[in-house]
């Protein structure tokens, strides 16, 4: 079992940095038992990483991909993040940044696991997406190496072997299934997106647009400018936080223009501060495609 100690030369909020890798309650590949654990597919095979904070950062890893995960620990925790170059142009963003000096963008260096989860979150409620992620992970993910009963997210090869009834039992509709299959068929090529820092490469896959590519870029290579345009909530929340009135994507991007090339970071500070517009309309009811 390889391990590593690392002392970050900057303030670090471990939970905030790694929390974006968790896909809802009951995520079979993520745990917060005695630190943060997650299982992942790596170029060397499946691996599990356990990270905890003491005076330093202590990490342990298991599996064929364990050493690869340890080697990427500094980048995962935001060592390559250009946060010091960020300038806050709005008081609410400046105050959020002041209160959260340990909030950084980490980089996993991998694409597939993040792309898989992001496709499941396309145009559905979080409840629907997280339920499907749990079902697919528990049924078709391999047991993760290490002492916790985690699951490694299913590989592209595994997903391509599933039958229609298996997809249906996990609650996945046809549109997202087609996109996921499209991505799985070229997954080995899409891994280059992390190295190239290219959202455009991901968007060449039918069914993957700017929202999905941004969600991957934020986590895969810590892209500080990848705004989740097209999200049901983000634009309304950002425009409300900065102007007092909910607006659309165009309005959000106009407000965020001074933050280029770190527009996503501005959004991240607003979200971390809990800046969400008041909700007066009924919430969307989650759909369960297993019933159809």
TrEMBL record:
This is DNA-3-methyladenine glycosylase II. The keyword DNA damage applies. Its EC number is 3.2.2.21. The keyword DNA damage applies. It comes from Lentzea miocenica. Keywords: DNA damage, DNA repair. It catalyses: Hydrolysis of alkylated DNA, releasing 3-methyladenine, 3-methylguanine, 7-methylguanine and 7-methyladenine. Residues 120-273 form the HhH-GPD domain.
């Amino acid at each position: 079992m390889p391990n590593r100690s690392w002392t970050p030369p900057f303030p670090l909020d471990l939970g905030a940095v790694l929390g974006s890798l968790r896909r809802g309650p009951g995520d079979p590949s993520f745990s917060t038992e005695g630190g943060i654990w997650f299982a992942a597919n790596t170029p060397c095979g499946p691996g599990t990483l356990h990270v905890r904070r003491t005076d330093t950062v202590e990490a342990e890893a298991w599996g064929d991909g364990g050493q690869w995960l340890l080697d990427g620990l500094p980048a995962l925790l935001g060592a390559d993040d250009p946060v010091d170059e960020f300038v806050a142009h709005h008081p609410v963003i400046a105050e959020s940044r002041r209160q959260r000096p340990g909030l950084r963008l980490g980089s996993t260096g991998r694409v597939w696991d993040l792309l898989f989860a992001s496709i499941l979150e396309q145009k559905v409620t979080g409840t629907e997406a997280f339920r499907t992620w749990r079902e697919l992970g528990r049924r078709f993910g391999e047991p993760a190496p290490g002492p916790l009963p985690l699951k490694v997210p299913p590989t592209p090869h595994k997903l391509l072997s599933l039958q229609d009834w298996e997809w249906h039992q996990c609650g996945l509709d046809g549109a997202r299934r087609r996109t996921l299959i499209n991505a799985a068929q070229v997954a080995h090529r899409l891994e280059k997106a992390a190295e190239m820092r290219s959202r455009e490469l991901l968007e060449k896959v039918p069914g993957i647009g700017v929202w999905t590519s941004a969600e991957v870029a934020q986590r895969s290579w810590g892209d500080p400018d990848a705004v989740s345009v097209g999200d049901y909530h983000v634009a309304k929340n950002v425009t409300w936080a900065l102007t007092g009135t909910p607006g659309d994507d165009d309005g959000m991007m106009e407000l965020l223009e001074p933050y280029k090339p770190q527009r996503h970071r501005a959004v991240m500070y607003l979200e971390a501060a809990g800046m969400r517009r008041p909700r007066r309309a009924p919430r969307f009811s989650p759909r369960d495609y297993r019933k159809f």
